[in-house]
Amino acid sequence: MRTLTIDQVDDLALGATLLGTGGGGDPYVARLMLRQAINTYGPVTIADPHELPADGLVMTVAVVGAPTVLLEKIPAGTEFIASIEALASYLGRDPVALMPIEVGGLNTLLPLAVATEMGLPVIDADGMRRAFPQIEMTVFTLAGIKCSPMSVADEKGNLCVFETNTNQLGETLVRGAVMSLTLANAFSSYSMTVAEVEAHAIAGSVTYCTELGARLSAVQRGESGAYDRFLEFAEGRVIFSGVITDVHRETTQGFSKGTVTIEARDGTERSMKVAIQNEFLVAWENDRPVVTVPDLICILDAETATPITTETLRYGQRVNVVAMPCAPEWHRDGMLEVVGPKAFGFDLDYVRVGA
Length: 355
Hints:
Blueprint: E1 2-4, H1 9-19, H2 28-41, E2 44-47, E3 57-60, E4 62-65, H3 78-91, E5 97-99, H4 106-118, E6 122-123, E7 125-126, H5 139-142, E8 150-153, E9 159-162, H6 167-180, E10 184-188, E11 192-193, H7 194-200, E12 202-203, H8 205-220, H9 226-234, E13 237-252, E14 255-264, E15 271-277, E16 279-285, E17 288-292, E18 296-301, E19 318-324, H10 335-339
Parallel strand pairs: 2-6, 3-5
Antiparallel strand pairs: 1-2, 3-11, 4-10, 7-12, 8-9, 8-10, 13-14, 13-19, 14-15, 15-16, 16-17, 18-19
Helix pairs in contact: 1-4, 1-8, 2-4, 8-9
């Protein structure tokens, strides 16, 4: 086992913002929570599955809802442990470790803050290696692991635990619950054994996120050649550069949905439109799809290389659009049915980065 110290939090948060692909919630508040937890309880213990009992229980914890709501609704903190304790009581077992369900946005940092407060290690793995807006959109679904039983808790002490027959129905019921509980709540699901994590999770996600953030931080400091080294590590490419000329965004059906339009700055008539459902899903250049989910579409400030979240998109921002391939663990039977363009309602085929 190893530790994640307070000196690594900023790199982790920056990597998480990038892997959030516009969604996952701005990690700013979660970063403060993690810093406070480390200062109070000590560094976060990071574990690989082989370092824990194979039959031990692993639990996840996250925020579920719409990122736009989190601009005004700050987590209280108590709801996250409440969601874990409620589900553990229902299962009749205590966890030996926690794990992020997604390495993207604030849901990367929150599990670490909760784990160190509870005195538990965090497994260096997740179910997406990016952020996705719906609960069933994990590699665990592809492996046949159920997301339920699940718990949802708010900051006022309201909580519920329920089971569903499918992960898709789990998404529907959780979304209905959070729509009644102000759209940003604590959530625990996908409880599984350490052996199941080792067999089916995306390994090394927390480490990857931290290293990715460190490379992007070097870009922000203006180090020579840093942008190329960052793109090489991420296997990414800049697919468009321009200025934001239109943002359409609304919170509906428990999600932040809309589009952002970017016009080229090179004197041509090129433009790019990116679809949003919490995260950036599809990028069209002059009406031709150039990248789609599950590959990552990230929008960075052209001057500062800061990843821009969907709720902070603004008219006039100068940006670079960076595309990165999804984790290799996604490329298995059933991927497109769970996280391909058609899973989001787009009548499109999957378009890989560089295709």
